[in-house]
Each structure stands twice: as structure tokens, then as C-alpha cells.
Amino acid sequence: MTFAAGIIGIGCYLPEKKLTNQDLEKMVDTSDAWITERTGIKTRHIAAPDQATSDLAYEAAVRALADADTKPEELDLIIVATESPDYKYPSTACLLQARLGAKNAAAFDLSAGCSGFVYGLGIASQSIVSGLYKKILLVGAETLSRITDWTDRNTCVLFGDGAGAAVLGRVEEGYGVLSLDLGADGSGGSHLIQPAGGSRKPTTHETVDAHEHLIHMDGQDVFKFAARRMPYACRKVLQKAGMTIDDVALLVPHQANLRIIDNAIDRLKIDRDRVWINIDKHGNMSAACVPVCLTEAQEAGRLKKGDKVIMVAFGAGLTWVGALVKWAK
Ligand code: ACO
Fold first, then answer.
1. Whose CA is nearest to atom 10 of ligand 1?
2. Range 206-223 burial, b when 16+ CB lie within 10 A, else e
3. What is the pLDDT along the chain (329 residues), one digit of tens a residue?
4. Which atom of ligand 1 is nearest to the CA of 155?
5. Residue nearest to atom 41 of ligand 1 (CA)
6. Are strands 77-81 and 106-110 parallel, antiparallel or unpaired?
7. Could you list the active site residues?
8. Rama region for 199: left / alpha / beta (φ>0; ψ in -120 to 50; rest)
9. How far is the CA of 24 from the centre of ligand 1 (A)?
10. Residues 113, 319 contacting (CB under 8 angstroms)
11. Protein residue with its CA nearest to atom 19 in ligand 1
12. Which end of the chain is less crowded, N or C, counting CB atoms within 10 A of the terminal residue's CB?
């Protein structure tokens, strides 16, 4: 016997402090005009010094659990998608499990860059479909400000901190996750990398002096990858579900660069008012982008039961992912 699986609650958390383009003008050789025109970003949130990724994840998780009317003890599994965990180990998911008191839940972190939340949606939904688990907490949470090179204008203008969470559970037949497309092209791994701090290049004074413990990115290579893969993943999930873009009520894309989103809008021929865009307010929060978008869309009354929603993302790995969901709440 199989079950339909879908999102039964969502929530997000954004740190209070905002960093504007004008603030960045004082830190590196950049301008509000350049950042706005080349990326679409105006401001982003930055975690307080005493806030780590699990703290942001906790706030988002509490809100998602309330929205799902679910108690922490009901959870069978917690997945945290992140590229900026509190520690290499223990996992951020285990820290969250302890803080929530979700004593019946298994827990692990998922590393798929900005694709992490939607990758997690794929894994979590199939764990419910198979009957293995009934309720799963899936979180995308990042404090990218901790691994950003604040002297590198090519990258430091792009990122922000935040967290979004979803509770997945059994839903009515025909609702929930309808189709998925998870992909990777590891040959592009070096385009988006934190070069030092792992077993390949353990942390030394030299690696820290060279800023190799921070994000390194070939922006144009990642841009080209994203421009191809975002529309590709959308078409794949539509094809698998036997639908067209006209059936989609809302497209929720990863928010890395407004020009990448615009490119997807053009290629897919979808009306702009059916695409959720918040990059101007939050920048690129990696795995947190999609669940934060979903929460905002729900709060704005843009997600109604039965709506077909596509979530699509790309990120470090390189990875890409699409999910087509029939909104179940
Ligand atoms: N302010 C002013 N000038 C800048 C800035 C800045 N912040 N950043 C770069 N420039 C300059 C460059 O130095 C370059 O100058 P030059 O011509 O004198 O060498 C010029 O602007 C153009 O640089 P490009 O790299 O060609 O700029 P581009 O239009 O490609 O935009 C960007 C760069 C925004 C990074 C873009 O390539 C991009 O968005 N790429 C995708 C990034 C992405 O999606 N990353 C995902 C990360 S997610 C994760 O997993 C953490």
C-alpha cells in the first residue's frame, strides 16, 4: 500500500538585522546600482552574533509545526538542508531534534547546496509514500554570512541568512507531491566550493589567510548552469505529471539572481504574476529560499488547496531539482 504525501504546514524565520546595498557600498567597491541591475537584490538579513543555523531552523520549525498542528513527538524524521551547519558534526538536524524534544525522530543533514530543501522534499515525500514514516520535518536553514568572504565583491553582495520549514505528512489521494526531478553534475563542483576545512584541505593558518574556508564561486559558470537547468527541471516535472505550464498556479524558483529567474520566465512562457519573487528583500539564502517563498505565498493567500505549484532550484554540487506539488491544505 502506498500513500499520498504532501506539505501539511510551513513556517519561516528571518533574522532581524538587515544589510542594505548602501551598507555594502561602505564595505567593498560596489554600488547599489550595480547590485540591483546585475542581481535584483536590495537588502538581505544577517543573523545576530549569537544565532547559529540551528537557532534559525528552530524558529522556522516551531512555526511550521504550529501551522501543521503537529507536536514534536509526532515526528518520525527531521531533515535539515544546509551548507552552513552549526558544526561539521553533530548534524544541525540532531541539534534541532534535541531542542524541539522530538524524541521519536531520526535526524540528518542534507548537503545539496541551494537545491537542498527541494531534494529533501523528494526524499521525505517518498519515505511517506512508502509507508516508512508518517510525519517528517524538513528545514532549509542557512547562516551564509558566516562563510561569506566580506572582502570579495563578487560574492558578498549575493547572500543572506534565513530559515524555512515544512511538515510533511499523508494527504488525500491525488494531492501532495505529483512528480520530481532530482539531478546532479558533479563535474561542475569546483564552480561553487568552500575549498578548505574538509579532508582534502584541512584548516591551517595558510588556508584561513587565503580565505579558503569561505565561499568561492565562478559566477558566470553557475549562471549558465542555472539558466539551462531551471527551465529543464520545470519541463521534466510537468512532463512526468502530464501537465503544461498553464496548469501551474505558482512557480517558486530558487532566488539566486533575478536575471536567472527572468530567463526561466521567458523560456517557460509563464506570466510573471504566477512566479514568487522575493530576492530583492532577502538575497540568496541557499536552501532556505524555497520554504521562505512558500511561507510568504501562503501568508499572502496565494496558495489554495488544489493549486499546482512547481518548486525549482539549483546549487552547489552542482545540483538541480524540480518538484510539482498539488497543494493539500
Ligand atoms: N559590484 C561592482 N562590480 C562588480 C561586483 C559588485 N558587487 N561584482 C562583480 N563586479 C564586476 C566584476 O569584477 C567584473 O568587472 P570586470 O569586467 O572589470 O572584470 C564585472 O562586474 C562583471 O562581472 P561578471 O562576473 O561578468 O558579472 P555578472 O553579470 O556575471 O554577475 C553574478 C555576477 C551576479 C555573480 C552572476 O554571475 C550570478 O548571479 N551568478 C550566479 C550566482 C549563483 O547563482 N550562485 C549560486 C550560489 S548558491 C549556493 O549554493 C551558496
1. 154
2. eeeeeebbbbbbebeebb
3. 899 999 999 999 999 999 999 999 999 999 999 999 999 999 999 999 999 999 999 999 999 999 999 999 999 999 999 999 999 999 999 999 999 999 999 999 999 999 999 999 999 999 999 999 999 999 999 999 999 999 999 999 999 999 999 999 999 999 999 999 999 999 999 999 999 999 999 999 999 999 999 999 999 999 999 999 999 999 999 999 999 999 999 999 999 999 999 999 999 999 999 999 999 999 999 999 999 999 999 999 999 999 999 999 999 999 999 999 999 99
4. 35
5. 223
6. parallel
7. 114, 254, 284
8. alpha
9. 15
10. yes
11. 154
12. N
Comparing CA positions, the residue from 43, 38, 37, 53 lying closest to residue 18 is 43
* Nearest in space to 226 (alpha carbons), one of 144, 323, 320: 320
**Which strands make up the sheet holding 176-184, listed edge to edge?**
176-184, 319-326, 308-315, 250-253
- The answer to whether the beta carbons of residues 49 and 136 sit under 8 Å apart is no
Q: All 3 cell numbers of residue 11?
A: 513556517
Question: Residues with beta carbon inside 6 Å of ligand 1?
Answer: 30, 34-35, 38-39, 83, 113-114, 153-154, 157, 192, 217, 219-220, 222-223, 226, 256-257, 284, 286, 315-316
Distance CA 196, CA 326 (A): 41
CB 10 within 8 A of CB 64: yes
Distance of alpha carbon 108 from alpha carbon 97, whole angstroms: 10
Please give the Cα distance from 235 to 231 (Å, whole number). Answer: 6
Q: Do 245 and 269 meet the contact criterion of CB atoms below 8 Å apart?
A: yes
Separation of 37 CA from ligand 1 center, angstroms? 11
Task: Please give the distance, rounded to the nearest whole angstrom, from the Cα atom of residue 152 to the centre of ligand 1.
Answer: 10
What phi and psi values does residue 149 have, to the nearest 5 degrees? -85, 100
What torsion, rounded to 10 degrees, do the Cα atoms 165, 167, 168, 172 define? -120
